[in-house]
Amino acid sequence: MHHKYVVRDAASVWTGSTNWTDDSWSREENVIAVVDSTSIAGRYAEDFEQLWRGKEVRKSGKVPTEPADGIRTWFSPKRGERLAHRIADAIASAERRVRIASPVITSGPILGTLAEAVADAKVDIAGVVDNTQVKEVIVQWAANPIKTWKAPALRAALTAAPFSGKHSTPYAPGSIHDYMHAKVTVCDDIVFVGSFNLSHSGELNAENVLEIEDAALAERMAAYVDDVRARYPAVQFL
Q1: What is the structure's pLDDT at 210?
Q2: What total of structural domains would you count in the chain?
Q3: What is the rounded distance in angstroms from the CA atom of residue 192 to the CA atom of residue 186?
């Protein structure tokens, strides 16, 4: 259960990547979105009720994705695969720029499309990840023969394009949590923002994403990603 959202008075939604912990507010990069819309609030309330009454993550997220007040809502796990393919399609369709902030990038559709877009070199692509978590993922993949294609694709994408990586503290009981924790993707003037890591696990978790097409917001979020990636060195895999 990976959501971080609040529905207030059936009229406003507060969501994003921020866990409600001291470390999240003081040590991590995160993005928060606030939407004042009864239609969007209604969809979040619907998702909440599916979790609250059903008490099972796997049965939640069956919420409409059609635009409401100019915003698409995506909830997983019921819409997880569709969300991954939607982000992949937006990356593939971008004509000017792609900016990504995500702790890891392991979703098959997104990773494959990103690697291909980087190789084509037709679009300005850049981003930031959590270098510690990326290394941990590479180790996990090495033990799974089915996923052997992912490691070369990830290496190619994150080294051929200017991706930075934060060397955060590895997880351990009682350790600080100082991850690069923001989850936002910008494709031209489309913004995807929410709780969803660009990961296969995210497709199966209880997650939420807002898809917003707005030029000014896209500029703001792209600038944010560029600011965060400027803080850290290029991604390292050794």
Answers
A1: 98
A2: 1
A3: 6
* Section 223-229 average pLDDT: 98
Asked if residue 29 is part of any domain, the answer here is: yes
**Tokens standing for 201?**
């696990």
Could you give the 3-state DSSP secondary structure of residue 152? helix
Domain that holds residue 16: 6-229
Are 183 and 87 in contact by the 8 Å Cβ rule? The answer is: no
Res 238 pLDDT > 80 = no
Pairing between β-strand 124-130 and β-strand 97-101 as defined by DSSP bridges: parallel
Answer whether residue 237 is part of any domain: no
- Does a structural domain hold residue 235? no
Looking at beta carbons, which pairs linking 107-110 to residues 24 or more positions away fall under 8 Å? Answer: 107/198, 107/199, 107/200, 107/202, 107/203, 108/84, 108/150, 108/200, 109/84, 109/85, 110/84, 110/198
DSSP string, 167-232: -PPPP-TT-----B---EEEETTEEEEES--BSHHHHHS-EEEEEEE-HHHHHHHHHHHHHHHTTS
What CATH code is carried by the domain that includes residue 35? Answer: 3.30.870.10
Q: 114 falls in which pLDDT band (50, 70, 90)?
A: very high
The pLDDT tens digits of the residues spanning 154-208 come to: 999 999 999 999 999 999 999 999 999 999 999 999 999 999 999 999 999 999 9
Average pLDDT of span 138-164: 92
Query: Cα(85)–Cα(207) distance, rounded to whole angstroms?
Result: 15
